[in-house]
């Protein structure tokens, strides 16, 4: 009973968001962004409901959801760290930051800490190329990083 | 007069319409430009870049397949810059490709391999993959996916979405992480896939293939206890010659009979016989539904829709489950045939059906799934043990060293070896409809269809959707209720077209009585199990071969097939009899859309 009402709630919420955009196929990205914000990630059920509302194939929804690093198809930690992996940051020393973050949190990229506090991910260019290496934690931007600085910043989110 | 532009390619001049692509212009001038992600049947995508050419006035090389000509151009297709770029692209693709050509089913028919040779790739400059990185997806009854050989051209994706309207496959993730996946990477066997195999036919490499059953068939042939019966469908007979170097549109039916006996099949029969039987059963079913509707005012499911294409049946089960009662309950010819072999024929030759193996030669990958459906065993035995594609059988014949093209002709065995021209044209889109019309019209009026030489032209051809009307005059006593009435029919091939038809049926916009739907473009002759490549011109050539053969046959109407009449007299009583229902009809399953 409880489970049923939960899925019904999700179906209703998805429909509301889709309706906002008149269930237009070209608004898919905005729709997915809103739902990602709402639930933290796009579950199998959410993607299926979006497909139904937009009369699209669910595989298309999945293709878009996996293409963008800001959309998740798996549950994520409370804080999402996204380290830029694009060329300028790569040259500015991204790898050292990556190592430091992995050591500090005890997880690899693509994983979430057991306490659910942090997820570690790569992203593509975030527009800070002249001040790399750069990363995002949730919506906050950090740049000119070095390993110690990166670890200090992460600590503030504990 | 359209806006014409002067184009010069490699010094040759030509005028083309505004918007023509560079590739189209080059083809017109007989200049070869290599392609990989491009396919004649599919929309453009311009992602592989193998078709790069040099265009005067452009800083970068241009992708010929997707660059429209909008001003007069000078183009060069094999400058040093172009040759280097192409070779680079190939070396990069190979650096990400795990496969051993000599164990690959596309060996010598692989577009990647062919290009590597054409462009003189003689070293793996950027390295290559030494161990498999993916496990093969063998979950489907029909299709095997080996993503280690995928070059991400997305031809399968475009085929499945645009051509077939299914959308089982999609490019997931991005950049170096990109992979062709089903939704959430579920096994293909659990995905919404109709097993049409069109993706296999479009794939340039060995990444997609059918589930190969030839080993099991060899085992049966080698087993002295087993009587192995082969049935051949019309579409592969008009195409399998391509596997032996013959031009598309060369039918080799009777040479193939000889070859199959040499391979070791005990009996070789004609699926067209079962196609004739399908017409008797399905035609009767249609007339019964019409009578129930018009005379007895009973609620019946009209339009009635054909059920011989297992790809279409599964599409309907997934996408239009509410319309399953509209499907004819008839099994496909392949299954009817198998069912009769394990009963009627087994009794005739006095062999225990458990010692009989039925193998079918089909143009189709979905036939594998169909033959494995649990409901396809009403006789107590599996109707059809193994369904082989044209490609698999060609491979088996090649293994024997038999040169089919040099063989003498021979006839089918009796008594299930006689098929009419009506059964034969089942292989082309519109064929089932034409066969049904030839028979139904004659049952109702006692006269032949009012078309020259029995050729029901309006239902032929490659238009995605065809419509026709036939009205009945001077009806016979039993069919007076149809006097002056018009039968409206429609035909679709390719499930993307089926969707259009079904949406019209659902909205009530169209009032048809009978609809033929084939999952594959062109009908079975364009099936997913047919020789690679298949494209529009090849489909047309195969269709021509089939219609030509029909026009030269003596028996061209299903109900005139004497062996069909004999079967009803000796075994089934009459069409749609209780026995016929048990052995020749089936049921369907509602399935989810996602
Ligand atoms: S896909 Fe082509 S290149 Fe790759 S192993 Fe098979 S034949 Fe060779
Ligand atoms: S077999 Fe047909 S439905 Fe299945 S993935 Fe291939 S093209 Fe799509
Ligand atoms: S599976 Fe074949 S058709 Fe699909 S993307 Fe890979 S290589 Fe291309
Ligand atoms: S390259 Fe890292 S922010 Fe642009
Ligand atoms: S064939 Fe032109 S980009 Fe692939």
UniProtKB/TrEMBL annotation, chain A:
Top-rank lineage group of the source organism: Bacteria
Cofactor entry: [2Fe-2S] cluster
Entry's EC annotation: 1.6.5.11
Chain positions recorded as [2Fe-2S] cluster binding sites: 84, 89, 125, 129
Transmembrane segments: none
InterPro entries membership: NADP_DH_HndA-like, NuoE-like, NuoE_dom, NuoE_N, Thioredoxin-like_sf
Keyword Transferase: no
Keywords: 2Fe-2S, Iron, Iron-sulfur, Metal-binding, Oxidoreductase
One matching Pfam family: 2Fe-2S_thioredx
Cofactor binding summary note: Binds 1 [2Fe-2S] cluster.
Key word Chaperone present: no
SUPFAM superfamilies to which the protein is assigned, alphabetical: Thioredoxin-like (SSF52833)
GO molecular function, one term: oxidoreductase activity
Family label: Belongs to the complex I 24 kDa subunit family.
Protein name (Swiss-Prot/TrEMBL): NADH-quinone oxidoreductase subunit NuoE
Lineage: Bacteria, Pseudomonadati, Candidatus Auribacterota, Candidatus Auribacteria, Candidatus Auribacterales
UniProtKB/TrEMBL annotation, chain B:
Domain 2Fe-2S ferredoxin-type intervals: 3-81
SUPFAM superfamilies, per database record: 2Fe-2S ferredoxin-like, 4Fe-4S ferredoxins, Fe-only hydrogenase
Record domain 4Fe-4S ferredoxin-type: where: 141-171, 180-213
Main location: membrane
GO cellular component term of the entry, any: membrane
GO molecular function, one term: 2 iron, 2 sulfur cluster binding
Top-level taxon in the UniProt lineage: Bacteria
Localization terms from the record: Membrane
Domain 4Fe-4S His(Cys)3-ligated-type: 81-120
Record keyword Translocase present: yes
InterPro entries: 2Fe-2S_ferredoxin-like_sf, 2Fe-2S_ferredoxin-type, 4Fe4S_Fe-S-bd, 4Fe4S_Fe_S_CS, Cytosolic_Fe-S_CAF, Fe_hydrogenase, Fe_hydrogenase_lsu_C, Fe_hydrogenase_ssu
Cofactor annotation: [2Fe-2S] cluster; [4Fe-4S] cluster
Xref: Pfam families: Fe_hyd_lg_C, Fe_hyd_SSU, Fer2_4, Fer4_Nqo3, NADH-G_4Fe-4S_3
Keywords from the UniProt entry: 2Fe-2S, 4Fe-4S, Iron, Iron-sulfur, Membrane, Metal-binding, NAD, Repeat, Translocase
One biological process term in Gene Ontology: ATP synthesis coupled electron transport
Family assignment from sequence similarity: Belongs to the complex I 75 kDa subunit family.
The protein, known as: Hydrogenase
Origin species: Candidatus Auribacter fodinae
